[in-house]
Amino acid sequence: MPISYEIDKASGLLLAKGVGQVTEADIAAFVNALLADPEYVHRKTCLVDFTDASFEVPSERIHELANRHRELLARATPVKIAVVAPEDLCFGLARMYAHYRSLLGVEIVAFRDEVSARAWLAGSVQIEDD
Description:
CATH class: Alpha Beta
Oligomer: single chain
Largest sheet: 5 strands, mixed
CATH architecture: 2-Layer Sandwich
CATH topology: Transcription Regulator spoIIAA
Order of helices and strands: EEHEHHEHEH
Number of helices: 5
Mean pLDDT: 82
Strand content: 25-35%
Shape: globular
Radius of gyration: 13 Å
Low-confidence stretches: none
Helix content: 25-40%
């Protein structure tokens, strides 16, 4: 699967990593895997790393994807989700997704690097709205 994940039980962090071409079907498979994982419900922070990924998801589909993931996010209600996306297209899509999810009360922020993402998740960096 182009998106894999592991759960760090000590810190409560869900770490997900995308590699290669990521399609809408890959995102759906990732969401379904999380929904089937009883450990996911306890996650309060998530780091999603797309440093080594590229996307085959049209920008006009991002709003629909955000709406489809309501069940996933309602089940666990993570406090924060940081998305690492250094590549321009992926970063832009992550920001669009974050915007649509924020309308439903989920805090998601896109970052260009993992250090900044982890600092935000740890609460040592504040993000101001654009």
